[in-house]
Amino acid sequence: MIEWLLVPAAYLIGSISSAIIVCRLMGLDDPREQGSGNPGATNVMRIGGKKAAAITLVGDALKGLLPVLISKVMGVDTLIMSFVVFAAFLGHLYPVFFAFKGGKGVATTLGVSLGVSWILGVVVFGTWIIVYKISKISSLSALVAAVLTPAYVWFILGDEYLLTVFIIIPVILLWRHRTNIQRLIAGEEK
After folding, report:
1. How far apart are CA 109 and CA 40, in angstroms?
2. 131 Cβ partners below 8 Å, 6+ apart?
3. pLDDT digits (tens, 9 = 90+) for 136-163
């Protein structure tokens, strides 16, 4: 039963906003009030450059990775792990520490993917890289990688619980990127 405490712990870890913390520490404007208003690595890059964005990206990935690795060390089954994955992801989207206004979840999804299976994480990240090299559009790269993740989970892991959570996450990512999708369709996405 104590393993289930990992779920709220994962949410709290996910609620730590790397973008806001990095911007405060580097003396930058609040990313929720600048650029796209999204507290994520892409917007931090607009506000503070590549270094700030890289730190934000690593922080957002780590807050997905760490709860999953802790649950693996504790030997939880994939049912509990799937809840841990989802809780860390939701913490990033709706952080309790920052008025429930979080990012879109791309880097945190990469982090939980790496935690579940390093092979899965590498394949997901590789997909992002390939699409980005071709398109030069970060949001498109993230969306393609997210949409393909359930297939990767099925082929690499074959676990129904993890497959379920990795079907739900891309649906939410698509919703969170709906304005990006509209701009992509209109040919206006940067």
Report:
1. 13
2. 140, 141, 144, 145
3. 888 889 999 999 999 999 999 999 999 9
Residue type, 169: I
User: Buried b / exposed e across 105-127, counting CB within 10 Å, b at 16+?
Assistant: bbbbbbbbbbbbbeebbebbeeb
Alpha-carbon distance of 61 to 68, in angstroms, equals 11
Provide the domain limits for residue 66. Answer: 2-186
pTM, entire model: 0.92
Q: Which residues lie closer than 8 Å to 117 by C-beta, 6 or more apart? A: 156, 157
Residue for token pair 């994520």? 40
Q: Specify whether the CB–CB gap between 142 and 180 falls below 8 A.
A: no
Q: How far is CA 41 from the centre of its chain?
A: 10
DSSP element (H, E) containing 130: helix 118-135
Total tally of structural domains belonging to the chain: 1
